[in-house]
């Protein structure tokens, strides 16, 4: 007879507590000869996410809202929290062996870290605080990152300019009603939520697969009249066919909802931003890798996003990404 004490049938895999750190170490253990460098970088990203999350939660109390009065490389006014988030990531990543290059939305040029030939090996590109115009009204904002292999001896920016299909990992952190860390290293998409009481990201979903369809589109419809005709035709078609519209105005929040609930997120070319507004290397590419890994699709016009060859770090792109059938529905109108 099984006594209650010896019955461990309730300890299913679903019930096991697993942190982001233990998830990464378990993944590392599956790769023969892995040195731990990559895990070390993810631990820096996890630490950054916790620090940034705590700053955001206290933003109004600590008076770090609003603008610094300076502009970033895109000519946009920097928020205090933009700068704090950027410095946090640079401080966490800059001290880690294995990081050869960091590139940020907030810095004009990639920063090459001199570590000699035998160390290094990765480039980490990021948008430290995406959707920062949402900060002042306590809306969702996020951090997006892309990790590429990088020759540690090279300080040639050309080495950094790799297409998205060469990313070895990508992820984002959504600082919303909870702090969520979504990660892929090319082996499925996994989701973690920060438990602030213990200071750890706990895994809440493994191998996420997104819905194949959902009648939801997400774009800034204020720009509709300046979208190319095909996008306008798609929106008319969607509205005639019972679609709903959802738009937070922070890519991380909009893509996260699309990942979990399905639909399509689009930022087409506009009159103001004829090449699209979003940045290819540290906004569109990481999101494209995540959505593809979850069974979705991602395009820049009619080209697969992950195949776009970048010519500069801060290159912009148009974006159509989300559930496979919904992306196809947009593409069929272009
Ligand atoms: P940011 O990186 O300066 O915050 O800008 C990117 C943001 C995305 O998060 C969001 O999808 C988009 O810009 C919103 O743009 P718009 O206000 O034109 O709709
Ligand atoms: Mg951004």
Outline:
The protein has two domains: 186 residues, Fructose-1,6-Bisphosphatase, subunit A, domain 1 (Fructose-1,6-Bisphosphatase, Chain A, domain 1); 116 residues, D-Maltodextrin-Binding Protein, domain 2 (3-Layer(aba) Sandwich), CATH 3.40.190.80. It is 28% helix and 25% strand.
Report on the architecture of this protein:
With about 325 residues, the protein is α+β, with helices and mostly antiparallel strands. The protein has 8 helices and 18 strands. Strands 4-3-5-6-7-8-9-10 form an 8-stranded mixed sheet, with helices on both faces. Strands 12-11-13-18-15-16 form a 6-stranded mixed sheet, with helices on both faces. α1 (about 20-30) packs antiparallel against α2 (about 35-55) and α2 (about 35-55) runs antiparallel to α3. The termini are far apart. Magnesium ion (MG) binds near residues 127 and 283.
Mean pLDDT over the residues: 90
Quickly count the helices: 8
Question: End-to-end distance, in Å?
Answer: 67 Å
Main sheet specs: 8 strands, mixed
- In the CATH scheme, what's the topology name of the largest domain? Fructose-1,6-Bisphosphatase, Chain A, domain 1
Features:
eight-stranded mixed sheet, D-Maltodextrin-Binding Protein, domain 2, 28% helix, 334 residues, alpha+beta, binds magnesium ion, 2 domains, Fructose-1,6-Bisphosphatase, Chain A, domain 1, six-stranded mixed sheet, single chain, binds 2,5-anhydro-1,6-di-O-phosphono-D-mannitol, 8 helices
């Amino acid at each position: 007879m099984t006594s209650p004490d010896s019955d461990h049938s309730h300890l299913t895999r679903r019930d096991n507590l697993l942190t982001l750190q233990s998830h990464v170490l378990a993944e590392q253990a599956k790769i023969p000869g892995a040195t731990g460098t990559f895990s070390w970088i993810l631990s820096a990203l996890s630490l950054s996410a916790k620090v940034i999350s705590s700053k955001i939660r206290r933003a109004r109390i600590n008076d770090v809202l609003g603008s610094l009065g300076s502009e970033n490389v895109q000519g946009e006014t920097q928020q205090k929290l933009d700068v704090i988030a950027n410095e946090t990531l640079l401080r966490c990543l800059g001290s880690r062996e294995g990081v050869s290059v960091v590139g940020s939305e907030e810095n004009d040029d990639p920063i090459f870290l001199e570590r000699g030939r035998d160390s290094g090996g990765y480039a980490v590109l990021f948008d430290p605080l995406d959707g920062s115009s949402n900060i002042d009204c306590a809306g969702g904002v996020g951090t997006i990152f892309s990790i590429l292999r990088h020759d540690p001896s090279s300080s040639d920016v050309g080495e950094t300019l790799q297409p998205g299909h060469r990313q070895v990992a990508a992820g984002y952190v959504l600082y919303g009603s909870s702090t969520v860390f979504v990660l892929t290293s090319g082996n499925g998409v996994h989701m973690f939520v920060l438990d602030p009481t213990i200071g750890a990201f706990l895994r809440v979903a493994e191998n996420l697969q997104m819905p194949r369809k959902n009648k939801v589109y997400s774009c800034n419809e204020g720009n509709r009249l300046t979208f190319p005709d095909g996008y306008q035709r798609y929106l008319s078609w969607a509205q005639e066919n019972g679609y709903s519209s959802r738009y937070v105005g922070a890519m991380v929040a909009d893509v996260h909802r699309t990942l979990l609930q399905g639909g399509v997120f689009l930022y087409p070319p506009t009159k103001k931003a004829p090449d699209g507004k979003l940045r290819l290397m540290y906004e569109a590419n990481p999101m494209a890798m995540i959505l593809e890994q979850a069974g979705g699709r991602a395009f820049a016009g009619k080209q697969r996003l992950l195949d776009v060859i970048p010519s500069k770090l801060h290159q912009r792109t148009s974006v159509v990404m989300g559930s496979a059938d919904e992306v196809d529905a947009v593409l069929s109108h272009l």
